[in-house]
Design goal:
The chain is mainly α. The chain has one domain. Helix content is 74%, strand content 0%. It is built from 14 helices and no strands. Helix 1 crosses helix 12 and helix 2 packs parallel to helix 12. The longest helix has 32 residues.
Length: 327
């Protein structure tokens, strides 16, 4: 049951880019999509916390003192207000310009970027296996981009997609400092609320967003908020408790596979043979990076793996650290 829940979560996350494309076709603007996604997700999670009080208490490693707890809450809100809002804005801006399948593959360089950043910051070690994985991922991404010669490729879109991966990497490294100190659903709710707040302020300053998008538009917005955000998060949490963090993280590599398959079936997108070979390299490298490395002399596991698990739970959000190890 655990692996099935993790795969269901990956499928829900993987469908988000396709839902986004369909929402655009229904007349939804990127601003409206972002505001409704985070606002609706925050509301659903808030109601869930009210109905299930136990979710407010479980999953944190410790009960921080009041002052430290206040800083943790502010950091969690800031993760959404700054990091996640920026990452999602870049992602859905790129989605306007390029194919969903190609976008998902470029975004999925973030596990590699997290590993590199963690090594440079001294928070993890570069083992021979990880070095091979990083080289494979880099080569795979080169193949993905070199093979993108069709109408689905857009240079600015690719730049925005890579920018989303870079911002997400920073977000994960910061989130790794608080993920152990709040229950996962509480942390996810705070992140969603922070992002909704930033996007609401932006909408107010820029003259608002058009929410008169008709029933089809609202249907796809609900799919993004409920299926690709709330359901994706909760199924990841449930699967994570049954499989453990490494298995759950490896199974999450199913996400871009789902995006590519759905984009081909629903949107008529396709990847060339060169791009498919590159995608295989990227996904295999990500899977290798999830294999637990030997503990350091301090006995602390690598930060990059913890960060990756946080990333998935928060991006849609896989906010998981060891105890609750999934957005």
């Amino acid at each position: 049951m655990g692996p099935a829940l993790c795969l269901l979560s990956a499928a829900c996350f993987g469908a988000m880019a396709v839902f986004g494309k369909l929402a655009y076709e229904a007349g939804v603007s990127p601003g409206a999509l972002l505001l409704v996604r985070f606002g609706l997700a925050a509301a659903v999670l808030g109601v869930l916390l009210l109905l299930r009080p136990g979710l407010r208490r479980g999953g944190a490693d410790e009960d921080p003192p009041a002052a430290a707890g206040g800083r943790v809450l502010v950091t969690a809100l800031g993760l959404g207000a700054v990091g996640y809002a920026a990452q999602a804005s870049l992602f859905f801006s790129a989605l306007e310009l390029m194919d969903a399948s190609l976008l998902s593959l470029i975004l999925y360089t973030y596990p590699v970027l997290v590993t590199v950043a963690a090594v440079l910051l001294g928070r993890d070690r570069l083992t021979p296996g990880r070095l091979v994985a990083l080289l494979a991922a880099s080569s795979g991404m080169v193949l993905v981009l070199l093979g993108a010669g069709g109408m689905g490729f857009h240079p600015l879109g690719a730049l925005l997609a890579f920018g989303a991966a870079v911002v997400y990497t920073s977000y994960i490294l910061v989130a790794d400092t608080v993920v152990h100190r709040l229950p996962p659903v509480v942390l996810s709710t705070l992140v969603m609320t922070g992002a909704a707040g930033t996007l609401g302020v932006r909408a107010a300053v820029t003259g608002g967003v058009d929410l008169d998008v008709g029933l089809p538009g609202w249907f796809w917005l609900a799919c993004i908020a409920v299926v690709s955000t709330v359901l994706a998060m909760l199924t990841f949490f449930a699967g994570l408790r049954r499989t453990g963090p490494s298995t759950a993280a490896i199974l999450s590599t199913f996400e871009p596979v789902v995006t590519t398959a759905l984009a081909a079936l629903v949107l008529g997108e396709s990847l060339s043979a060169v791009q498919l070979a590159g995608a295989a390299l990227v996904l295999s490298a990500v899977a290798v990076l999830q294999v637990p490395a030997p503990r350091s002399s301090t006995g602390a596991p690598g930060a990059a793996r913890g960060g990756l698990r946080v990333g998935r739970a928060m991006f849609g959000v896989r906010a998981a650290a060891a105890p609750h190890d999934e957005a």
